[in-house]
Amino acid sequence: MIEVRDLEKQYGNVLALRGISLEIPTGTAALVSGPNGAGKSTLLRILAGLTRPTRGRVAIDGTDPFGKGAAARRGRVGFVGQELALYGELTVEENLRFCAQLHGLDAAQTGGEFDPLRDLDLAPVARRRVQTLSQGYRRRASIARALLTRPEVLLLDEPWNGLDAEATRHLARLIAREREQGHTVVVAAHAVAEHAHLFNRVIQLEAGRLAGDGSASAEPE
User: Fold this and answer.
1) Where are the domains of the chain?
2) Domain 2-215 has CATH 3.40.50.300
């Protein structure tokens, strides 16, 4: 369960979030929509524990991302921002192996039901340096990195940027599978219409305010 109460974030004279309150139950696939500057990225970064709010409260399964005990649960939340967290001079495999080592995982723990190279169709570029890849492949590799710890909450900021049609289908299947496994997926996206069918919750932000919050009929591909 994600709980947000009276959340505000101010950057200088700019109020990016204005008193946001909402709850996202476990197992929900939620789409956070809105125009540029609506506060979508700021909300996700606060949920990920990367940006501290100016005011208000956030809890993920009862844990404050900025409070005591947050570090122990950090692997339970996967975040992929618009700036991809990869080492360009390393190959895709090396990036994933390094991330696994950071989290104390071995090859057996990262295989099995979830295979990042297979499930995100990264096998053809597994041994290429990230800096030589297209934006779409870099984004897929970054999503794979976030999924290595098998997080219970997955936060994706504009994940369709730079993806071709095949990669878009892979991402749609991934979102559907995460939801089927009881995980929570929160996606921030500017474009809504072509992806809304993947979600059972649509949250609309406008100028930092909650402009709409309702259910959607999710029909995963």
Assistant:
1) 2-215
2) yes
Q: Is 97 helix (H, G, I), strand (E, B) or coil?
A: helix
Which region holds residue 77: left if phi is over 0, alpha if psi is between -120 and 50, else beta?
beta
Residue 204 has what pLDDT? Answer: 93
C-alpha dist (Å) from residue 89 to 82, 128, 145, 162: 19, 9, 16, 20
Strands lying side by side in the sheet with 209-215: 77-80, 153-157, 184-189, 29-33, 201-206, 209-215
User: Shortest CA distance to 144 belongs to which of 112, 176, 110?
Assistant: 110
Give the pLDDT confidence of 121-168 residue by residue, as tens digits. Answer: 889 999 999 999 988 888 889 988 888 888 899 999 988 887 788 878
Task: Identify whether the C-beta of residue 148 lies closer than 8 Å to the C-beta of residue 110.
Answer: yes
